[in-house]
Write a structure and sequence with these properties.
This protein has about 300 residues and is an alpha+beta fold. The chain has helices at about 15-30, 45-55, 70-75, 95-100, 110-115, 140-145, 150-155, 160-170, 230, 235-240; strands at about 1-10, 35-40, 60-65, 85-90, 120-130, 130-135, 135-140, 175-180, 185-190, 195, 220-225, 250-255, 255-260, 270, 275, 280-290. It binds adenosine-5'-triphosphate. Its cofactor is Mg(2+).
């Protein structure tokens, strides 16, 4: 029988996580024909360690139930593994960037039904130093501010808490000296933020990187180098309308490898959580993980005949 592991953060999803768990277990077992093992997280890195076990025991499927933090920890269990199970996602966080990018319904009940879908996408992941990320890395003082947005604030304000916190930080006008080396050159200068995105959804803004496809084998990179960009508040408009990359104060490039260094201590934010300080080295891992997506998500994708 096929083996599935559910990795669930019981503290996510406004106390309803365990209720959804029963439904996920049921659908995987009765409709998708899996033997199901359930692992509840109690602390940081539990999800990574459970996922490492699933790889080593050659599970067919891992389902992450929780927010972007739980998903980030889960995918980190795939790092350097020979066998990587398929991934199912039930989004219970406040932002759920990766689920948005994969067109997985943000309503948990609907997301649960996608677990019976026969459609898969082989999506890119990327490495940052000794960890993986699925969505975005940001470096600079603004990135540090994003890490300090509390879950409480995110719940209250949704994705806009990210922007509000960012705007507050930008008023203090802090820039960091950055050296950014990529496939086709080097950029050197002072900037409040550098962003490398794998998907089109960053901080709940689905238009930040409108050209980013989850399987295009590219890091979509933005260097915001002029604070006037934010002071005139055009950033919000640009973000919402998806033309950030066309703005005169923003440098945009795509790359497969990027190194970012600084002469000062500079913090990063990785998939919405505090990440390592600079220097960072990023490189893309094309089509690294097979994700279950809704039947209607991308008609170009082929159904997996083994599941039919
Ligand atoms: N049982 C638990 N109780 C509290 N925290 C936990 C538990 N299990 C894991 N965690 C930690 O909680 C972090 C955040 O979890 P997760 O992203 O699932 O929820 P969230 O904070 O509600 O989501 P979002 O950040 O999108 O609002 C995880 O990275 C993990 O380290």
């Amino acid at each position: 029988m096929k083996q599935a592991m559910i990795i669930i953060n019981p503290s996510s999803g406004k106390e309803l996580a365990l209720e959804y768990l029963r439904k996920v277990e049921d659908i995987l077992h009765t409709e998708a024909g899996y033997d199901v093992v359930v692992n509840e997280t109690t602390k940081e890195l539990d999800a990574t360690n459970f996922c490492i076990d699933a790889c080593k025991q050659e599970f067919d499927l891992v389902v992450s139930i929780g927010g972007d933090g739980t998903l980030h920890e889960t995918i980190n269990g795939l790092l350097d593994q020979k066998h990587r199970p398929k991934l199912g996602i039930i989004p219970l966080g406040t932002v759920n960037d990766f689920a948005r990018a994969m067109h997985i319904p943000l309503d948990p009940e609907e997301a649960i039904h996608t677990l019976t879908s026969t459609r898969r996408r082989h999506v890119d992941m990327a490495r940052i130093n000794d960890q993986l990320f699925a969505n975005v890395v940001a470096a600079g003082s603004l990135a540090d501010a994003l890490s300090s947005v509390s879950s409480e604030e995110k719940s209250k304000l949704g994705a806009f808490a990210y922007f509000k916190e960012g705007a507050k930080e930008l008023l203090s006008s802090s820039k960091s000296p950055l050296v950014i080396t990529h496939d086709s050159g080097t950029w050197e200068g002072d900037a409040p933020i550098f962003i490398a995105a794998l998907t089109n959804s960053v901080g709940g803004f689905e238009n930040l990187a409108p050209d980013a496809e989850v399987d295009d084998g590219l890091l979509h990179c933005f260097i915001v180098h002029d604070l006037n960009f934010f002071n005139t508040l055009t950033a919000g408009v640009s973000l919402l309308f998806g033309n950030l990359k066309g703005h005169k104060d923003v440098e945009y490039f795509t790359a497969t490898q990027v190194t970012v260094t600084s002469t000062e201590p500079v913090k990063t934010n990785v998939d919405g959580e505090a990440g390592p300080e600079l220097p960072i080295k990023l490189h893309i891992l094309p089509s690294h993980v097979e994700v279950i997506v809704p039947e209607e998500a991308d008609p170009a994708e082929q159904a997996d005949p083994a599941e039919e």
